[in-house]
Amino acid sequence: MSSDARDRDRDRGEWSESVVSIRRCAAVVKGGRRFSFNALVVVGNGRGQVAWGYGKANEVPPAVEKGVKDAHKQMKRVNLRSGTIPHAVVGKFGAARVLLMPAVPGTGVIAGGAVRAVVEAAGVKDVLTKSFGSNNKLNLVKAAIDALTQLRTKDEIARLRGVTL
To answer: Which of 78, 133, 154, 164 would disulfide-bridge 148, Cβ 3.0–4.6 Å?
Structure first.
């Protein structure tokens, strides 16, 4: 095994991949229907980094692979506080709204499928969530990541405002 392959395996072991949805698309051609697949994937390291990716291919495994590759290109950093989030926040994308609220230790992740994949990949252990508006999985994932990127710690806010705590 070469050093490049070892590095790739180490990187892959650090990141958790979650397939949120796989959709089949049909194109009608002269001989009948030609099917292709779309895969929505969420990737995170469980320590505050998370991203989503979207891949399209004629088979499911290459679509998922492309989604993972796409996700690694747009990784985002998230501020977490001891297994939960620092404050309540609303993320928006299109008609989708996602409300994330901090929860006490032991609560777990109370979330639907798409939002659950995002918060678990980011490493959040205890959180309450509610989605409003659209139930489109892609828009919910984008709204959840938008909410997570809005999180700020007390120290960060104090520094931005120029005050001491």
So the answer is: 78
- Among candidates 31, 44, 29, 22, which has minimal Cα distance to 148? 44
Q: Which fold has domain 78-158?
A: Ribosomal Protein S5; domain 2 (3.30.230)
Instruction: Using pLDDT thresholds of 50, 70 and 90, give the confidence band for residue 3.
Output: very low
CATH class of 3-76: alpha beta
Question: How many other CB atoms are found less than 10 A from the CB of residue 64?
Answer: 20
64-68's contacts with Cβ under 8 Å and 24+ in sequence apart are 64/17, 64/19, 64/22, 64/39, 66/39, 67/19, 67/39, 67/40, 67/41, 68/17, 68/41, 68/43
Please list the residue range(s) of the chain that carry CATH number 3.30.230.10.
78-158
- Predicted model pTM: 0.87
